[in-house]
Structures are given as structure tokens and as C-alpha cells.
Design goal:
Hypothetical protein af1432, mainly alpha
Length: about 200
């Protein structure tokens, strides 16, 4: 009973940290919640187990928690990021993974959080993983994160339309993202988005 209560307290703390980060990055403060919806629905579409879907959901809620260690000056910058800014931004998956893995109840989320910025062609970060070397949950999360980021207003640009975001996903399919997962994801968002 005590362990369950402790886990719930840790989870609530992590969720609150994630909401704080979302408010710093996104004008709606709903980014992670929406990413979790898209990622978990896609995981179900891919017939993943209930436990895998649950892990993807929670990793998605917490995927940007590492941005808590990034300066607000960088997160809210309205101009192009400098090389030094990018060095710091690229640390957020590792910071987030370290935060989550330090809590005994949630170490299974860390690999997904750590790899959510990896790219299918190996040009992502932090480790330059490629193809199926990127955990499946991270491949799903990366697509959901990119889509949601595109359709939101950000400090540095206006939101794209659903159609524009889907076209961009299709354009980078096989390079940035796993092609099969892009197809499943697009089916999900097309069936759930009012056009």
C-alpha cells in the first residue's frame, strides 16, 4: 500500500513538472496530453499489448520533462536557435530519461523518452540510433510529438493545418520516421480529426 501511494505521489509530481514544461514551450500547455492521446491510439492501432500502450502513454506525457533543465530564454526564443542553443535543446531527452529512471516505479519509460528525438535514418539525437534500433515506443512518440508540435502555435511560428502537418509527415517518411508507423498514425489522425 505504501509503495502504491509513493508511486502515485511520484507520478503526480512528474505530471506537474511536465505541465510546467508544456506551459513554458506551448501556448496551450496541452502538448504532452495531446501527444499521449495520439501515441497511445496509434499503439492500439498497431495492436500493441495493454502494458505497451500504457507505457507509451506515460512516456508521452513525460517526454519533454527534460526541458525543465533548459533555459526559458531558449524555449521561448522567437528567432532561429543558435548552435549553442541546439546543444542545450538536444540534452532534453537525456535529462528527461535520467529524471524518470531515477524513480524506481518508472524505469521502463526511460528508453522511450531518451529516444523520442532519434530519426529513422540515424540523424537524430542523442545517440544517432536508426531504424528498428530505435525503440518502437519512441518511434511512435516521435511521430505524435512532431505532428502535435506542427499543429500548435509556438513562440517562433504559427500553427500549421492538419493537412500541412500530414503532408510533412509523408514527406519525411522513411527518413525521419518509420514508414509503417507514419501510415498507421496518419490513419489515426485522419479518422479522429475534424477536417
Amino acid at each position: 500500500m505504501i509503495n502504491t501511494q509513493r508511486q502515485e505521489l511520484w507520478l503526480q509530481l512528474l505530471i506537474n513538472m511536465s505541465k510546467f514544461v508544456d506551459r513554458r514551450v506551448s501556448k496551450t500547455a496541452e502538448h504532452s496530453r495531446q501527444v499521449a492521446k495520439w501515441a497511445s491510439t496509434t499503439a492500439r492501432r498497431l495492436k500493441m499489448s495493454d502494458d505497451e500502450v500504457k507505457n507509451i502513454y506515460w512516456a508521452s506525457i513525460l517526454h519533454d520533462i527534460g526541458k525543465i533543465g533548459i533555459s526559458e530564454r531558449i524555449l521561448r526564443k522567437t528567432s532561429i536557435l543558435s548552435e549553442d542553443d541546439w546543444v542545450l535543446i538536444k540534452m532534453h531527452p537525456t535529462i528527461g530519461s535520467n529524471i524518470v529512471s531515477s524513480i524506481d516505479a518508472y524505469p521502463s519509460l526511460a528508453p522511450t523518452i531518451s529516444a523520442h528525438q532519434e530519426k529513422y535514418d540515424g540523424t537524430g539525437y542523442p545517440k544517432g540510433l536508426s531504424g528498428e534500433n530505435i525503440p518502437l515506443g519512441a518511434r511512435i512518440l516521435g511521430i505524435a510529438d512532431a505532428y502535435q508540435a506542427m499543429i500548435e502555435d509556438r513562440y517562433y511560428r504559427h500553427a500549421r493545418t492538419h493537412e500541412e502537418a500530414v503532408a510533412e509527415l509523408q514527406k519525411v517518411k522513411g527518413k525521419q520516421f518509420d514508414p509503417e508507423i507514419v501510415d498507421a498514425f496518419v490513419n489515426v489522425v485522419n479518422s479522429e480529426t475534424i477536417v
